[in-house]
């Protein structure tokens, strides 16, 4: 059976749409009439689903969200563990999905499975929705006959990744809001309040304090050119993001970030923790080491670190042990290298990689906590200094008002 998208008119004359499975377009139209719907358009979902999930433009490329794919994977693991046929499992998961686009995607995967394809090869038709790591683990689980446990591991991994990302986002919300409010308050003071207060001093015959002159000049500049400056900044950000689409420029930018001490530590911790946890779960699922290294390296967001991971894979392919290959790269933490060496010696590499990832994530949380703990009072002090400068610039001429009148 094939999935079809439809548009139809209900009894109230309203246009409704959705996805149905049928042997043919005619059979779907019969189903719609049986539901008291008048078919307007019926088309195969495959072409539209492929267009939706495999777009090459980064901005338009659609992906399943981490929460959505974790839920789908968890449901599929539970159903597969209950010994239901795989196509029925996919059908059940599709029926429980509310989003029509996701439902169409799952029904297309189910159609491929019903035709005799493996689940991994069926998912490979939609690389934008199911990444390399996801498909590699599913393939390994199918080959080993352990698809349900592998899907459970995938669901746990996806949920943990989502939880880590949420913690990072939550840690950044407060300082970003604080910075935005600070900029807005200072801009409002300079554009609307300061001109009214210092206007009385602008036409005096006496020399104004340097701080007051600077405040008046800054206020005038922001009033006259503030909007243009804002547009220039927005255009600069857009142009910068456009330039970074080029891999060479993006690699140079990533290399520059790795030369900044504090940012280097954060980026390396995030990416190496991601590398360790991905490599651990891939190897635990039976994926060969070289394939696991390739996929785990692609998960890293920094291109320079990706190059390092590829260099590690090359050395391992040439016969080097994993810990020696990692030790020759400057970015992988020494603790991670030692734990990998212990795992290789004890034959429990997957567990040691998982522990290394957990250690790095804890260190990252502690580092972020320290940075945020320092940033907040520094931001308050900075804002207090700006407000003090504005107040002094206004009060200094007032203190000297008697002299100015004479």
TrEMBL record:
Keywords: Calcium, Cell inner membrane, Cell membrane, Membrane, Metal-binding, Protein transport, Transmembrane, Transmembrane helix, Transport
GO molecular function: metal ion binding
GO cellular component: plasma membrane; type II protein secretion system complex
Residue stretches making up the Type II secretion system protein GspF domain: 73-195, 275-397
One GO term of the biological process aspect: protein secretion by the type II secretion system
UniProt subcellular location: Cell inner membrane
Transmembrane segments annotated in the record for this chain: 171-194, 225-244, 378-399
UniProt-listed Gene3D superfamilies: Type II secretion system (T2SS), domain F
Membrane topology, from the record: Multi-pass membrane protein
Classification via InterPro entries: GspF/PilC, T2SS_GspF, T2SS_GspF/T4SS_PilC_CS, T2SS_GspF_dom, T2SS_GspF_sf
Highest taxon, organism lineage: Bacteria
Protein task: Component of the type II secretion system inner membrane complex required for the energy-dependent secretion of extracellular factors such as proteases and toxins from the periplasm.
PANTHER family xrefs: GENERAL SECRETION PATHWAY PROTEIN, TYPE II SECRETION SYSTEM PROTEIN F-RELATED
Family as reported in the entry's similarity comment: Belongs to the GSP F family.
Name of this protein: General secretion pathway protein F
Organism expressing this protein natively: Luminiphilus syltensis NOR5-1B
Gene name per UniProt: gspF
């Amino acid at each position: 059976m094939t999935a079809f998208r439809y548009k139809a008119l209900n009894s109230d004359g309203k246009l409704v749409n959705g996805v149905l499975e049928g042997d043919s377009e005619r059979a779907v139209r019969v189903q719609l009439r049986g539901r008291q719907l008048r078919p307007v358009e019926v088309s195969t979902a495959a072409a539209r689903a492929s267009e939706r999930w495999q777009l090459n433009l980064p901005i338009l490329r659609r992906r399943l969200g981490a929460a959505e794919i974790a839920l789908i994977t968890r449901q599929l693991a539970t159903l597969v563990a209950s010994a239901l046929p795989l196509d029925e499992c996919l059908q059940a998961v599709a029926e429980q999905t509310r989003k029509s686009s996701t439902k169409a995607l799952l029904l297309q995967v189910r159609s491929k499975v019903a035709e005799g394809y493996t689940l991994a090869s069926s998912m490979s038709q939609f690389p934008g929705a199911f990444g390399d790591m996801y498909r590699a683990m599913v393939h390994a689980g199918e080959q080993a006959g352990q698809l349900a446990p592998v899907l459970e591991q995938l669901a746990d991994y996806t949920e943990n990744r989502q939880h880590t990302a949420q913690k990072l986002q939550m840690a950044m919300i407060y300082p970003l809001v604080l910075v935005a409010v600070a900029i807005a308050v200072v801009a409002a003071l300079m554009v609307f309040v300061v001109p009214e207060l210092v206007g009385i001093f602008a036409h005096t015959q006496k020399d104004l304090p340097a701080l007051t002159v600077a405040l008046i000049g800054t206020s005038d500049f922001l009033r006259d050119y503030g909007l243009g400056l804002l547009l220039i900044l927005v255009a600069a950000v857009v142009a910068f993001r456009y330039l970074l689409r080029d891999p060479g420029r993006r690699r140079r930018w990533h290399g520059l970030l790795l030369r900044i001490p504090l940012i280097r530590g954060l980026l390396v911790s995030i990416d190496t923790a991601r590398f360790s946890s991905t490599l651990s779960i891939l190897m635990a699922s039976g994926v060969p080491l070289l394939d696991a290294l390739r996929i785990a390296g692609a998960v890293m967001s920094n291109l320079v670190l990706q190059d390092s991971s590829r260099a590690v894979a090359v050395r391992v392919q040439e016969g080097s042990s994993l810990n020696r290959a990692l030790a020759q790269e400057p970015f992988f933490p020494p603790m991670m290298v030692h734990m990998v060496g212990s795992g290789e010696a004890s034959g429990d590499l997957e567990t040691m990689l998982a522990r290394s990832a957990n250690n790095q994530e804890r260190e990252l949380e502690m580092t972020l906590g320290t940075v945020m703990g320092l940033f907040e009072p520094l931001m308050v002090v900075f804002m207090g200094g700006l407000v003090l400068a504005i107040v002094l610039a206004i009060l200094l001429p007032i203190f000297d008002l008697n002299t100015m009148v004479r």
